[in-house]
Write a structure and sequence with these properties.
With 463 residues, this protein is mainly α. It is built from 17 helices and ten strands. Among the domains are: 255 residues, Serine Threonine Protein Phosphatase 5, Tetratricopeptide repeat; 57 residues, no CATH class. The strands form five sheets. A two-stranded antiparallel sheet has the order 1-5. It has a two-stranded antiparallel sheet with strand order 2-3. It has a two-stranded antiparallel ribbon with strand order 4-10.
């Protein structure tokens, strides 16, 4: 890693007030304090700060949800002041030299991983104030958050790989490794986190997790979040039996709200980070409307959007002109008449993982097991989960005639609408199944990006 070149920036993520860095977090203590003389309040503050670090590049217009949404043809950003949302994200290969359209989603997650390592390394130096169970809870939490950050890195880099041996002294360069190795490290971190959270037993976290983790505010409950992430990672790796086992330990529950889950939280207070996914220049890709199925039964007298899948109605709203009338926006040859409304306010939370995804991951794991000829897979369970989501979340009719030849496409369609504009799921899923070529090309000359490149400063350091 380029810690020798960006060390100051990474340490600024610990919030030294004199630093100027892209991912500030005013909740964290100074570096010297956590390195040389950590106290329980110092460690607690730094641990809480990992939540802020994890959300650092999630909800900006140039953030993870927005840019991966563009790549997956969920959204457009049609801004008269910046055409790069079209010319770069939908154009030629991404530029690794720009921090907003190719080189992003690298420094911020690595900074947070570095900070998680600092938290873990500080704990043995704290001789009083924490019980062993509380220390275990902190380590389990930190390793889970590290896994989440590594997942962001490899979801964006894919076959370009990433560095994983990053807990090194300043000046040492960690090698880049392939995607499979990165995913194994993520799975290992989650398993290590599970072990520590289990050791914590009934102890409480000695620090607050905030509004985004209301349902996971104790180690025992946070373990369910850890297992949910483990299930997603296992599905991504094609390890479907492991995915089903992890789902069994997660918070999957068809009797619970589909919204149950962990969220990145945002705020409007001084120094807090806001959710900027509600700007009027973020538009819905037209295919979201044209591909949505009608409600069943359709409400009497409904028309347009009001007749479509409840998930679309919950997330999409007509684009209005200055007088409040529905209209369209056309820029750079692209046209849309809809904005998103699922993040209406500057403090709207953004999902990390929800119950709805877990149900669909169970269907996906069962489909994968059956396709691979492995024991334990159930096409019947997959059909039941898919139709449960269709009817419960979408308000659309159950799908009949599902079989081994068409059920994967149906599963991906339901994931597309259930997880629309929540974190690039359509782009990631299309790539995993070799279906990037099925994403629409709206204007001649456009491309579907397969992955973000390794940033130029990182590759320069290796020559």
């Amino acid at each position: 890693m380029m810690f020798q070149k960006i060390a100051a920036a990474l340490f600024c993520s610990l919030l030294l007030s004199a630093c100027d860095f892209d991912v500030p977090d005013l909740n964290r203590p100074g570096l010297d304090q956590i390195l040389t003389n950590p106290t329980p309040p110092t460690v607690e503050s730094a641990a809480t700060g990992l939540l802020a670090g994890a959300r650092a590049d999630i909800a900006e217009r140039i953030g993870y949800v927005s840019e991966l949404g563009i790549l997956g043809r969920e959204s457009y950003v049609l801004s008269g002041s910046d055409d790069r949302f079209v010319t770069q994200l939908l154009g030629p290969p991404l530029d690794p030299g720009t921090s907003n359209f190719g080189g992003n989603f690298w420094v911020a997650p690595y900074a947070n991983i570095r900070n998680a390592n600092l938290v873990i390394d500080a704990l043995p130096k704290v001789t009083t104030g924490f019980t062993d169970a509380e220390k275990a809870s902190i380590v389990g939490f930190a390793k889970t958050m590290m896994a989440l950050d590594f997942l962001k890195i490899i979801n964006t880099r894919d076959t370009n790989g990433a560095a994983i041996e990053v807990d090194l002294p300043i000046g040492q360069l960690a090698p880049l490794v392939d995607k499979a190795t990165v995913f194994k490290r993520i799975a290992d971190l989650l398993d290590l986190g599970k072990a520590q959270l289990t050791t914590a037993g009934t102890a409480a976290f000695p620090f607050p997790l905030g509004n985004g983790f209301t349902s996971f505010s104790t180690p025992a409950d946070f373990l369910k979040f850890n297992r949910a992430l483990a299930a997603r990672v296992a599905v991504y790796r094609g390890q479907y039996a492991d995915a089903l086992a992890a789902l069994g330990e997660s918070f999957l529950d068809t009797n619970a709200p589909l919204s149950l889950g962990a969220y990145h939280s945002f705020g409007i207070g001084s120094g807090d980070q806001q959710d900027d996914l509600n700007t009027t220049d973020i538009f819905v890709h037209p295919s979201v409307i044209t591909d949505a199925e009608p409600l069943s039964p359709a409400p009497a007298g409904c028309s347009g959007l009001a007749c479509l899948d409840n998930r679309v109605q919950a997330k999409v709203t007509p684009y209005l002109d200055a007088s409040g009338k529905p209209t369209t926006q056309t820029l750079y040859g692209l046209t849309s008449g809809y904005n998103f409304k699922l993040y209406p306010n500057k403090d709207s939370p953004v999902p990390i993982i929800r119950n709805e995804e877990l149900i669909l991951l169970r269907a996906e794991a069962n489909i994968g097991l059956v396709a691979a000829g492995g024991a334990g897979g159930s096409l019947g369970q997959a059909k039941a989960d898919i139709n449960f989501i269709r009817t419960t979340s979408g308000g659309i009719a159950p799908r009949g005639g599902l079989n081994s030849g068409n059920i994967l496409d149906e599963l991906l369609m339901q994931k597309r609408f259930s997880l629309l504009f929540e974190g690039g799921h359509r782009w990631i899923d299309a790539r995993r199944y070799g279906k990037l070529g099925t994403l629409p090309i709206d204007v001649a000359g456009q491309t579907v990006q397969p992955a973000f490149p390794i940033p130029t400063p990182e590759t320069d350091a290796r020559h």
